[in-house]
Each structure stands twice: as C-alpha cells, then as structure tokens.
C-alpha cells in the first residue's frame, strides 16, 4: 500500500529541509544548547484516534524550552482558573522573549504568559503552596498523560546550564519580586522554570502531547474546553514573541516555539503538529521549523482564518 498524501507531504518537507544550507543559528546563550548539531530536522503529525505520522529525526529528543510554557499555563489554569489573569496579561508584547522594557513601564505585570516574564509569573503561581519538586512532578505527570508516554523526562544538565548563566531571567524575576508579582524567592521560582524548560521530547511525543489542544472525543481532556480555546488564542497571538504576527500571517495556526528549535502548532479539531530544527531565525523561532509549518498548512489547506478553501491533500 502506498503512503498517504499527508505522509508524502511530511517526507517531502523533511527531505527539502535536509537539503537546505541556510538553517539559522542555534541558540548559544544557553551553553548546553550551543553544541547541538544544526543539521537535524524532524516533523510529526498527530490526529485523534489515528497513528501519528513522522518524518526525519523523529526519534531524537530535544529541549522543548518555551514550548513547555503551554503545558505550565494549562496546569496553572486548571489549578488556579481565572485568578492567574490578575498577575499576567493577554496581549502580544511586540518585544523579544526576554525583554525587560515593558515590565518597567507596566509596573511588573507581564504582557502575556509566553514571554519569559509572564512564564516566570505563571510558574511562580503554580509553585505557590508546593515545592519545586512537586510542581515539576505535576508538570511531568500532565505532559506524560497528555502524550500517553511515561518516558518523557527533564534534562538536568540543560537546567543547570541555564541556572548558571540565565542572568536576564534572574533580572526579570527580581524585578517582578520588587513589584510584588513573585510570591516565592526568585531562586526557587527560577529553578523550577529552568527545569520546566529543560523537558526533553521527540517530535512524536510533542505532537501527541499537543492533542489535548485539538479537542474531540478521542483525546485526553486535562483542562476545560474554555481553557483550551484560550490557550490556542494565546498561542496564536503571543506564541512566537515579536514574530507572532508573522507566524499567524504565514502559517495561520496557533503555535508555540522554543529556543531549542521546536514548534508545536494546533489545527483545532483536526491535528497537532510538532516540528524541530535547531537553527533559529532573528526572532528566536526555528527557521526551517516555521517554513515547514507554512508548507504543511498550505498543502493541507489548514488555517483558522480559512473560508472553507481546501488544500491539495
Ligand atoms: N529557557 C529559555 C529562556 O528562558 C526559554 C526561551 C525560549 O525558548 O524562547 O531563556
């Protein structure tokens, strides 16, 4: 039996990514990430109740970094509900992922939960009343249940590498604390945040873990439908930092990137897609990963902005 049109599309996208020489630059500000081989590329597509399709280096685990913010936000909304919005906003920032600028102007209330300052506040809110170990265990439980895979783990070496060098994040945390928007000591919240960012997954595991955001009868439902819509909305408007508008324009799907080179994108009601290519564009989002999402969405005719136009698959 020949392969499905979607599998063919994934194979072709992976093959053309492999052949590319302009791959972007690997994140070097986290020393443990600086040595990653930029020639790797993988893509996975998960649909409710169907086998996950993969192409490229789909067995290689990578550091999901800021994609973890999606799972921590889901955990925070499940545990704390709308109270979270007292401490963090829902607007795109238009600034880089680790910017301090707006935080000073807006008196310590970060624009959204996906820029670093907002993610640090979100982690701090979940951490309140428990230990870093318990919070990270809850996060791993959430991700493992969502992916249906108990082997997903945290890479402590990468977390330690960021603890030793993440001065900007320490600056953000102390600044938040000075405005009363950090409940725990900065070291405690950041230790948790850096370990959360150091979760490692393959694209297959990540695409499967994203299925809860797709919805439908056959997928785990760890948070309410209302929260799912809101997480997807935030991924669309804020998931790619100051490149969020460009991603919405080019791909047309909610997505969250990480500086490890991973992107998770959701086709609501249809599919969860994960892509990984470690080289980043100037926004700090995976260069070939973004291009691959753009190609797949266009070939399949997937866009939340579509007017019923069908793709070629
Ligand atoms: N751990 C990274 C940081 O805080 C995450 C950034 C990202 O993936 O965009 O700098």
Radius of gyration over alpha carbons?
18 Å
Mean of all residue-level pLDDT scores: 95
Strand-and-helix sequence, N→C? HEHEEEHHHHEHHHEHHHEEEEH
- Shape by Cα distribution: globular
How far is the first residue's CA from the last residue's CA?
17 Å
Q: Order of strands side by side in the largest beta sheet?
A: 3-2-9-8-7
User: CATH superfamily assignment of the domain at 66-199?
Assistant: DD-peptidase/beta-lactamase superfamily
Instruction: Enumerate the distinct ligands.
Output: glutamic acid
> What is the number of helices?
13
Q: What labels would you give this structure?
A:
13 helices, 3-stranded antiparallel β-sheet, alpha+beta, 313 residues, binds glutamic acid, globular, Beta-lactamase, 5-stranded antiparallel β-sheet
Folded structure, characterized:
This protein is an alpha+beta fold and 313 residues long. The chain has a domain of 134 residues: Beta-lactamase (3-Layer(aba) Sandwich). The chain has 13 helices and ten strands. Strand 7 and strand 8 form a beta hairpin. It binds glutamic acid.
């Amino acid at each position: 039996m020949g392969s499905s049109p979607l599998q063919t599309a994934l194979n072709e996208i992976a093959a053309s990514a492999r052949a590319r020489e302009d791959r972007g630059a690997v994140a070097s500000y986290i020393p443990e990430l600086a040595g990653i081989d930029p020639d790797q590329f993988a893509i996975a597509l998960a649909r409710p109740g169907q086998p996950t399709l993969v192409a490229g280096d789909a067995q290689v685990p990578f550091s999901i970094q800021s994609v973890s913010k999606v799972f921590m936000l889901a955990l925070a909304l499940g545990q704390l509900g709308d109270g979270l919005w007292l401490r963090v906003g829902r607007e795109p920032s238009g600034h880089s992922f680790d910017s301090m600028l707006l935080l000073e102007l807006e008196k310590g209330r970060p624009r959204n939960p996906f820029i670093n300052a907002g993610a640090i506040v979100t982690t701090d809110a979940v951490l309140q009343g428990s230990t870093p170990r318990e919070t990270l265990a809850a996060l791993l439980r959430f991700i493992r249940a969502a992916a249906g895979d108990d082997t997903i783990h945290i890479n402590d070496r990468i977390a330690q590498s960021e603890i030793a060098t993440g001065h900007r994040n320490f600056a953000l945390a102390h600044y938040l604390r000075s405005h009363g928007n950090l409940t725990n000591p900065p070291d405690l919240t950041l230790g948790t945040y850096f370990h959360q960012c150091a979760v490692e997954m393959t694209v297959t595991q990540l695409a499967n873990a994203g299925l809860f955001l797709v919805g439908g009868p056959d997928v785990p439902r760890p948070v309410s439908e209302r929260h799912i819509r809101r997480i997807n909305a935030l991924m669309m408007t804020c998931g790619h930092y100051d490149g969020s508008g460009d991603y919405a324009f080019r791909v047309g799907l909610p997505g969250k990137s990480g500086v490890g080179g991973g992107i998770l994108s959701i086709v609501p009601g249809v599919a969860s897609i994960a892509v990984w290519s470690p080289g980043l564009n100037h926004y700090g989002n995976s260069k070939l990963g973004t291009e691959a999402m753009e190609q797949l969405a266009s070939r399949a005719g997937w866009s939340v902005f579509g007017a019923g136009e069908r793709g070629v698959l």
